[in-house]
């Protein structure tokens, strides 16, 4: 019910102490004015029932005048967007006024009700949500984490630091985001995979689709990266979800192999039943029995190959069975009196040759699987980088808009001070304005995907197991070619030196 006057402004003295009671960065700044500019990026709109001319500075050098101007100056500096609301008395009945908080709406003055509705409507529709630097919107849970960090700092006798609080919040949010992404990946892999799969590639394609969805969840909904101060709140190895999803993928690969072995051992047992009965019954231990055995074995192999859903371990199961029967075949061969010694020697040599070819086939199959895994790893890595680049670009744009807004406010404030005749005060803003311009240039030149590739290739070399390290070398080389370096050999040598220093 009081009017907006000098005394009302004096009661807002806490505004002048904001830079003393809270810091934006963990490292103390030697320039308070420079540091105070950071507050513009996350302070809310200043909404109060005041008249704009109440913030006009009073001319004069007197200490009282300077003190009076301090609150006005701080409000103008920290709150670029201001809104005025004027309220009538809630009621003209003094008795009711003593218990105004207990009054029902119909007991309040009609004009006051309308003014209150206008005020609430503005807050709900026009007031921006609480954000942190970079345009990060603070949720209810996130706000609770920030408050806890502030209170802990105050209780410990320190000055609350926004950067430290944001790091704490980001670590909490990122951990939750990683878990949500990992849970989505595991859930979708379980739903979409029908084990055993026909091929490893089928599993890897499902993995790629599920991983992309999981990364989208992490990147778009929850992840926090900070482009300023040159640090990422993303944990290495390279991406925080990578280790979890790789382990989960490997687990599915093992499950797929085990399911394939179990399935084909059952199929093999059924298909080989006739062959095994003939062996145990002595059917092949007669003159000409070796030829009969080869005919029965070939028929069994053909029937086995016609089984649907071959599976990743179908060939291995078959080769293991045939290897286990090598002694039986040798016994049948030696017992076959219809064959000469030369025929037996030739047949034995053919059996050894077939066994060697089967071993080579298994080796080629294993090498092909490793190649598929490596290619999938590379595709996944490139997809991660592409999504990270998109996020970095969006954050850079948000940060640039934020910095441009801060710069425009400072320039406007400087112009107002000059218009009001406060030349000295206007000149003090020059350093802040220059710093903001420098920050904008730095943001525009923020590192891009090439920098990430350069860093990531070396990390891959260091952290990937065995043959996957070649992927890191490949990315390093592709980066060299992409950058068009004049003398790539020294970079390749540097990469191989790093490669050789890591135990495979």
UniProtKB/TrEMBL annotation:
Signal sequence residues: none
All residue ranges annotated as the GB1/RHD3-type G domain in the record: 1-128
Superkingdom of origin organism: Eukaryota
Ranges that cross the membrane: none
Alphabetical UniProt keywords: Coiled coil, GTP-binding, Hydrolase, Immunity, Innate immunity, Nucleotide-binding
MF terms in GO: GTP binding; GTPase activity
GO biological process: innate immune response
Family matches, as Pfam families: GBP, GBP_C
Sections of the chain in a coiled coil: 346-446
InterPro entries per the UniProt record, alphabetical: G_GB1_RHD3_dom (IPR030386), GBP_C (IPR037684), Guanylate-bd/ATL_C (IPR003191), Guanylate-bd_C_sf (IPR036543), Guanylate-bd_N (IPR015894), P-loop_NTPase (IPR027417)
Statement: the UniProt record of this protein carries the keyword Zinc: no
Assigned protein family: Belongs to the TRAFAC class dynamin-like GTPase superfamily. GB1/RHD3 GTPase family.
Protein name in UniProt: GB1/RHD3-type G domain-containing protein
